[in-house]
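>> received
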Amino acid sequence: MQDNLIHKGQRRKMVDELRALYPFDERVLAAMATVPRHLFVEAALVPFAYSNKPLRIAANQTISQPYTVAMQTHLLQVRKWDRALEIGTGCGYQAAVLVKMGAQVHSIERQKELYMQAQKTFLALRMDAIFSYGDGYEGMPLLAPFDRIVVTCGAPAIPQQLVMQLAVGGRMVVPVGSDTQIMTVVERLPDDRCQITTHGNYRFVPMLEGKEAGAPFRRQRCE
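>> returned
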């Protein structure tokens, strides 16, 4: 996999454009400046990898535009060593940004093709994360609680089972809605109370229950 000076220059330009659009946490922009986004998309779309727009990936899914990735990561307020759960691995780009920020990432994907491709990309990049093939609505109760949870697909409502997998003081970022989603932050407070804030409208592919039929649940570590 190549990451040449042209790609690095395109990343710097992308980050500069994001910085001009919103006062993102500089740690988020620094992480995005190091992740080779072009290696997470199909070869035909590499020329568009650093443009601020979503791109098609396998299984009729999309990789979110850089602005959306930056916003979700910014709202997540990831700290080094946080245990982070991602719902919807997709091509693995969001997980890679979280890893670069020092999080210990667990990611669930319901599409087998994407689950396999993300592992392949992480292995090639020698990045460390744990990928699972399963139902994102269920989360990972046996590994809970998590300090941070990010949902990268549009949920019809706040997934309560995921809320219960948040540590006290933890944060979840989830787009909530049907056609258009409202970016929502859920902070778990003591005594099982939650504080909810909203942060604008976005469009995501829908969050679906279950997983692709015909394959058992399994977990794979990439490092």
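>> The CA atoms of residues 77 and 171 lie 8 Å apart.
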